Amino acid sequence: MSRDHYNPVPFDVEATHRRWMKQPGFAEAYAALEDEYAALGELLRARQAAGMTQTDVAQSMGVAQSSVARLESSLGSRKHAPSVATLRRYADAVGCDLHLTLTPKHGRPRKRA
User: Fold this and answer.
1) In CATH, what number does 13-93 get?
2) Which of 56, 67, 37 is nearest to 94 (CA)?
């Protein structure tokens, strides 16, 4: 029995996003979860830029590959929000720093203290 070498298929997040945005109803549903999809995009881009698979990241974090898969998939489902500590460990695993920012909502004035 031959053992073929695993060769992952590249996934172009931006091209897929552009294609999906053309589907009826997708843009509205996406806008409702835009912040979570943006976070997911950041994770995927960082992992891709590091040339790592989920298994590579999992080994670096000291967790199972399924944990990394769950982390990456949870950011679009609102099922399980990862902790800042988990995001920091992921960032470390892919050779990045974690930065969180809060920005004012559009059209909403900020109250002064």
Assistant:
1) 1.10.260
2) 56
